[in-house]
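Title: Request for sanity check on ThiF family protein prediction

Description:
We are preparing a figure and want to confirm that the structure record we downloaded matches what your pipeline produces today. Could someone re-run it with the sequence below and paste the raw structure tokens into this thread? We only need the token string, no images.
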Amino acid sequence: MLTVLATSQAQGPSADASAGFSYDAAFSRNIGWVTPEEQQSLRGKRVAIAGMGGVGGIHAVTLARLGIGAFSVADFDHFDIVNFNRQIGATVSTLQEPKVSVMAEQVRNINPEVDLCAFPDGVTDENIDAFLEGVDMFVDGFDFFVLGMRRKVFAKCRELGIPAVTAAPLGMGTAYLCFTPDGMSFEDYFQFEGEDELHQYFKFLLGLAPSALHRHSLVDTSQLNLKEERGPSTAAGCQLAAGVVGAQAIKLLLGRGPLKPAPWYHHFDAYEGKFVTKRLPSGNGNFFQKLRLKKTMQQFT
């Protein structure tokens, strides 16, 4: 069943609370990094974000503060206490509250004029078209282990000509990839086809971060178990991922460069103080990448 909650005054700030709001004043401190004309362009853009948890929630807040004027946001989950270490919407007052509703309210409290469509069932086969309707950019906020629907959304974005960004919080850093309609596709880069679920998880992890800058700061490797679908995370990684997505949004939505889409990968680790940006020809089909995959699977399985 298709369920969409459109923005409404009842869901957002009260009329009194938003009466003194001015878009130009609210986002005036962005000017300098963007021109006044570019700020107004951002006001007219729609960004779709799948997932309102670890990275998705802070993506939404970061992009709202950039002045993005319209969002399509999706999540079927509720906040739990195990989310407190990293998810911006997770607090005592939001326990067991729907993530999509909590984060939609935060976005509306930043910009009460925002055009926001919420999908409380998450992204499904039934609503994927509505989720991506009129979208200028897609941001991947899916849980790491949600690969089936992630693959479908990236494929749909390519079909519709929508640029897409995925930024994963890895340790105290972030690895990110940008997929453009005329560049390498998500499937061609990760090469999931024909692999079982566990192999897909490892391919996703290794494809995101071939340089594996985060490996030295993982002090307890027993906490990473892809077979059991669990792994550690930090708020620092989520915050850095959102910063990266904000920067990529400026490039993609305003047509500013330089932009290095896949097969270029990018990985910044604040703990190690290192940044790697390299081209990975053939993506996971690269000979050296296949060796990394074999070694990593031997270590963690």
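Thanks, this matches our download. The chain has eleven helices and nine strands.
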